[in-house]
Amino acid sequence: MDSLNPSSGLSFPVSEIEQPAPETVTSIPVSLAKFHLSLLYSAEIIETFLAWQVLYMWSMDIARPDLRKKKIRQYAVWAGVAVVLLTVAVVAVSRLKPAAPTVDRSTIWTDTVKRGPMIRQVRGSTGSLVPREDSIELIPAQTDATIVRIRVLPGAKVTPDTILMDLADPQLDQELLNAKLALKAAQADYKSLQATLQSTLMDKKTAAAQVNADYTQDQLQAQTDKALYDLGVISGLAYSKSKSTADQLSDQHQLSRQQLDVNQRAIEVQLASQQTKIDQAKALLDLYQRQAQSLQVRAGISGAMAPLAVPLQVGQHVTAGTSVAEVIQLDKLKAALQIAETQARDIQIGQPASIDTHNGVIPGHVTRIDPSVVNGTRTVDVTLDGPLPPGAVPQLSVDGTIDLERMIDVLFVGRPALGNENSTLSLFKIDQDGKGATRVPVKVGRASVNDIQIIEGLKEGDSVILSDMSRWDNQDRIRLE
């Protein structure tokens, strides 16, 4: 039984002691797992040692029972103390908090809280350049025609006299010829009527002249007879006859003059009526001539040829009023920004804006806010106050920011990846030594594109993590490396 004597220097291989499975500690940090494993290992040794002591005592032939009982009580006390110590150690270990997770500093985005002026802005990242209403020249077909030639394609620079395409309309050619003949006929009728009226007028003037001559002669005769009557050369009957004839011719003279006036006005009315027919024929001829000229479609303004919604092809028949070409002035473009409806409520007409064409930034101002909402956004038109950079064309994608207000002396920080304005956020504030960060509640106010106002929870100079930290939502502290 000497082999069972613990005082004989008996040792137990570690491999013979049952150890906890590795997977039981993989869920806790490495340091905590090692400490827990060492406690379990110590408890196993103590229990094994006590078991060997009891076996040794039972195996010995002891002559004194009281001494044997005394040793048994001592071993029992030692075993109880060991169990109590082991229980206390296990409880203490279970109450230890796990170590803070480590985060690579290069994967996070930080900023420092500042105090000063902050400009509230909204951004439209899905905008485009579009023609202004006064820069579009839409050219319709003046008559039903067929496209026989297309000379200019969309995107080409044009001048007012540039011919864009050729149209053909045989019916218009016939109508133009008829209008020319109708004008000539109206002019001939006018001249014929004018000659007839002039001849009639001359007859009336001749008759009036004869009446005027007789009137003049009878007036002279009456005056002579009056002088002779006063001298007593002729009788009163002869004088009365002469005077009556002169008075009668006076009435005829007045009537002849009035008749000439009436005839003159009648001639003017008849000639004016015939002139109206001439003017009508001229207007119709001018219309057909303009339609004939419009068969050669010209740009009308300087600019660039724009594509139509429905492209035209050679040989296609178009009706009167159909748009056959569109020309826009490249120096008269505006920016149409798509702004989220939740951000567009603070935008006002006239607010300053800046448009990024990715080839330069152009200042501008808000001129229109679309009242309708489409897919959660509203269209805001910005008129450009500066020159366009090279390469600026319609439908070019642009970004734009609109200045809502300028806030003076406020506490602000960069806008976090997650979080809305006028709410309470949970951010990690970086320690002074920069080796760790602790989660703190932060109350924020108004937000801009890149900044957000701090109401409480942070002070000037504090550094916080702004990147998405949702992966560590269940952690109140992290370590930075």
Describe the overall structure.
- This protein has 481 residues and is of the alpha+beta class.
- The chain has four domains: 2-94; 105-130 and 332-480, Beta Barrel (Elongation Factor Tu (Ef-tu), domain 3); 133-169 and 296-328, RNA polymerase II/Efflux pump adaptor protein, barrel-sandwich hybrid domain (OB fold (Dihydrolipoamide Acetyltransferase, E2P)), CATH 2.40.50.100; 170-294.
- Helix content is 38%, strand content 28%.
- It is built from five helices and 21 strands.
- The strands form four sheets. The protein has a six-stranded antiparallel barrel. A four-stranded antiparallel β-sheet has the order 4-11-9-6, with no helix packed on it. It has a four-stranded antiparallel β-sheet with strand order 8-7-5-10.
- Strand 17 (424-430) and strand 18 form a beta hairpin.
- Helix 1 runs antiparallel to helix 2.
- The longest helix has 62 residues, at 170-231.
- The chain is rod-shaped, with a radius of gyration of 57 Å.
- The protein starts with 29 loop residues before the first helix and ends with a strand.
